[in-house]
Amino acid sequence: MLWLVLYLPRLPLEVFPGLPSPSAIVSHERVVVADRAAALAGVIPGLRLAEAWAFLPTLSVHQRDVEREQTALTRLACWAGTFTSEICCLPPRTLLLEVAGSLRLFGGVAMLFERVVAGCAEQGFAVQAALAPTPLAAQWLARAGDDEVCLDVAQLPQRLGRLPLSVLDFSPETQARLGNFGARLLADVLRLPRAALARRLGAGFAADLARALGDLPDPRPRFVFPEYFAERLELPARIENAMTLAFAGRRLITTLCGWLAARSAGISECRFEFAHERGARQRPATVLVLAFATATRDAERIARVLGERLPRLELPAAVELVSLHAEALEALPGRTASLFGESSEAAAGDAVAALVERLRARLGKDAVHALSTVAEHRPENASRRVSPWLVKGGKSAAGLRAASGMPDTPPGPRPLWLLARPRALREVAGRPQCGGPLRLLAGPERIESGWWDAAEPAALGDVRRDYFVAISVRAQWLWIFRSRAGWFLHGVFA
To answer: What's this model's pTM, rounded to 2 decimal places?
Structure first.
């Protein structure tokens, strides 16, 4: 096993976006963490509040909110589902990822480590990361800020031995006892007899050393991903321009995609809610629903649709909180890469789906549609507009056609483009004209009847036509027919 630990030393401060500087988070009248400006003035963790104000009278103080920290840690765990589903949460500031099975997928240890650390920064968290074969060793390395990768259990005594005891999360009593032994580094402790340590410091301390070195198993409870996705992000400042919300939306989208990856699922729809600032006239949240042609968990694809919709979103008031919800999941297993890198049919389908999504987001949902065949012999009535999500729910164009009751092969050639209304053609010496005389290539095909809707308004009614395939002097292939009223152009072959 290989454990990647994310230690978030500034999490109590980071859950309060937009705090004035200098600021500090306190608990029980002691400083928990301070921002950079306060730290430069001497405000350090553990300092009494009165002493902190003595160092910096302008210090802004906020009480620690453990519930906010837990929410942020859960959101980060969902985001980490992109890299592995084997995740452990250790409140209040630590996250453990078991990544041995993810190395090949993400290009090896160095690339995976870099992507996780960079992703944490994009999510707005300062992180100390470490990677080691045992979870406790990785925790200690992360707390000490040692980000050098350790892959071999045999290297753990040397790697852990150089850690100062002052940076580890031992209890104050244990720290004092070890100091009395003359120990300053963990190597000093590892040189002491294990049995004597157990007698003086307790069996639990000796067992922790054994777990860190890999001598004892160290099972950890796994994080349970929530059944439904509902995450919120408080903005550092009120936002009045909808386009500015794309940054916050992208953070939530990457968290959503991590949650989906861990559940091997995708979504065809998600919902953003933009909560407006409180005031004398509280406005309801603005809701923005994003729909997708096929189930997806591609963050770029979701963010692209959001980016197309935001410019046309009107905000009645400034926004101070963004939330993202996803409930209806669809099974979406991972895809196997092709051996020689050729594009797959699934990849081509995703490209078409992404194009449809962007067109609908940009032009409006009613501007893009698909066609489905109908069991009707009259060409004007043989198709109908349907939603462009042809492959949603396992349907395809072929599936829609089969469901319509139409035969697999039409009775005759049909053009891709039908005119909205048949256009009358001139006739010279018995030959139809369209920019010159037309030459008939195939036909006639008789299409007639339709008496059942003759009395309905705007219905086609009874028809009697003989259809031909013709070619013009410009080499255009046309679909024409002759009726009692003469010759008409009805379609053009691609």
So the answer is: 0.76
CA distances from 362 to 227, 228, 308, 311, 367 (A): 32, 29, 6, 9, 9
Q: How far apart are CA 24 and CA 38, in angstroms?
A: 7
At 234-248, the pLDDT tens digits run 999 999 999 999 999
Phi (first) and psi of residue 35, to 5 degrees: -75, 180
Mind listing the pLDDT tens digit for each residue in 172-186?
899 999 999 899 999
Please enumerate in sequence order all residues whose Cβ is within 8 A of that of 271, keeping only pairs 6 or more positions apart, or say none: 287, 288, 289, 290, 324, 325, 326
CA–CA distances in Å: residue 17 to residues 3, 46, 121, 320, 363: 30, 22, 14, 11, 36
Structure tokens at 272: 């953003």
Residue 279 burial by CB count (10 A; 0-12/13-18/19+): exposed, middle or buried? exposed
d(CA 156, CA 179): 22
Which amino acid is residue 178, in one-letter code? L
Which of these CATH numbers, 3.40.50.450, 3.20.20.10, 1.20.120.450, 3.30.70.270, describes 3-16+65-213? 3.30.70.270
- Start-end of H helices in 96-167: 109-122, 135-143, 156-161
The residue ranges of DSSP E strands in 99-228, in sequence order, are 128-132
Q: Please state the φ and ψ torsions of residue 123, each to the nearest 5 degrees.
A: -80, -5
pLDDT at 399: 44
The H or E element that residue 309 is part of is helix 299-309
CB atoms within 10 A of CB 458: 6
Q: Quickly state the pLDDT bin for 299 (edges 50, 70, 90).
A: very high
Task: Fill in the DSSP letter of residue 484.
Answer: T
Tokens of 71: 């929410």
294-to-184, 307, 391, 396 alpha-carbon distances in Å: 59, 18, 7, 11
* 340: DSSP letter: T
Q: Which residues neighbour 288 within 8 Å (Cβ) at sequence distance 6 or greater?
A: 271, 272, 273, 274, 306, 309, 310, 313
- What are the residue boundaries of the structural domains of the chain, listed by start? 3-16+65-213, 229-334+344-358, 370-403, 417-492
Establish whether domains 3-16+65-213 and 229-334+344-358 are of one fold. Answer: no
**What class has domain 229-334+344-358?**
alpha beta
The residues, any chain, with a CB within 8 Å of residue 310's CB and separated by 6 or more, are 242, 243, 245, 246, 249, 288
For residues 59 and 377, the model is more confident at: 59
